[in-house]
Structure formats: structure tokens, C-alpha cells
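tool=predict chain=A
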Amino acid sequence: MRLNLGIRRRLTPLLDNDKRKIRLAYSLLFSLPGSPILYYGDEIGMGDNIWLEDRNGVRTPMQWEAGETAGFSQASPESLYAPVIHDSVYGPRRVNVKLQRAEPDSLLNIIRHMIAIRKGHPAFGWGQFEWMDFENESIAAFRRTDHDESILAIHNLSDREQSISRPIKKPATSMTDLLTGNEYVSLEENLEIKLQPYQYLWLK
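tool=predict ok
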């Protein structure tokens, strides 16, 4: 699916529309160094049309709501530059902004929450970066630090539960996941965590 200098597919189809993998990918995007970039429609998990020429397959109308033109235009569907995606998985009846705004656990609201957390913690945008070794090939973990702020981002890249352990410095006896508010308490100066398949944490 590569064409010229890019890939003519959207993220959601590339990850088989697996919500766990998609959210994990965005956790990496918003916690790793650099400026995160979202292409329109990716925030709601839009699909693509690989039958269109060049990279037009990812340039279909933005899906604002259900309907023949997905709320993108009041013109007739046949007059649009590119056709609206119409299939049972990625069509506007299933994937659109209006639906996802109303669902607290939708991809749109998950991404908005990640962005808000990132903006509220300078360590993500300006902080130093350091890989953390948990001696587990399924775990991608790194620390982001800025002045007195330190955040540990942990990602389980596998489809199996993973158990990890790491010494924790005093006086920190617990760490809080910025995304969920869940607290992880250290035991005998060790932080021990069980990660579900494709689970991710932003621990402060």
C-alpha cells in the first residue's frame, strides 16, 4: 500500500479496526518526543477507499454525521470530488463525529482526553526522553522528565497479559495513571503491574 513517499491507507484499517491497537498507537504518538500530527478523520477512525487513484483513497469526505454526503456537503453525492465511503464497517452510519461526541468511550473522546493530558504536562512536549528497560520484549516504556515532573509511559505491545516490576525511588510510594486516575502502589520498594493486552499507562 505504499505509493510515492507515503502509505495510501488510514491507520484504522491498517490495524484491522482493533480498538485496543488503535488506542495504543495514539498513546505512543502523544507520549513520544516530537509534534503529533493527526490527519483529518483519523480522530474518529475513518476508513479509506483503496480503489481511488493515487492517494485519493484517504481524501474522501469527512464524516460529520450519517447520510448520503456524511454532513460534508449539501450537494448531491455524485457531484462530490470523491465519493463518501459506503460500507458496513467504515461508512458514515457507523463512523461519524456526531455519534462519537455522544459516546464517552469513543475514539474521538479518547483522543481529546489524551491531547488535554499532554497539553497539561510540559514533560510530554518539552521533557527529556529516556528508554526504560523492563527486560520484556513486549513492553515499550520510557520516561519523560521536565524540571520536577517525571512521567513513565508504559505500553504492552503484545496480545497477551504482561507482568512487570521495577524498583521505585522513595519518597514515591505510588504512581497515578494520568489517563484513568488509577493508582499503582509500590510493594517493598517495587512497582509491580499487570498489563492487559495492548494496555498503556502514563504514570506520574
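Helices lie at 11-14, 19-31, 97-101, 107-120, 122-126. Residues 122-203 form a domain with the Immunoglobulin-like fold (CATH 2.60.40.1180).
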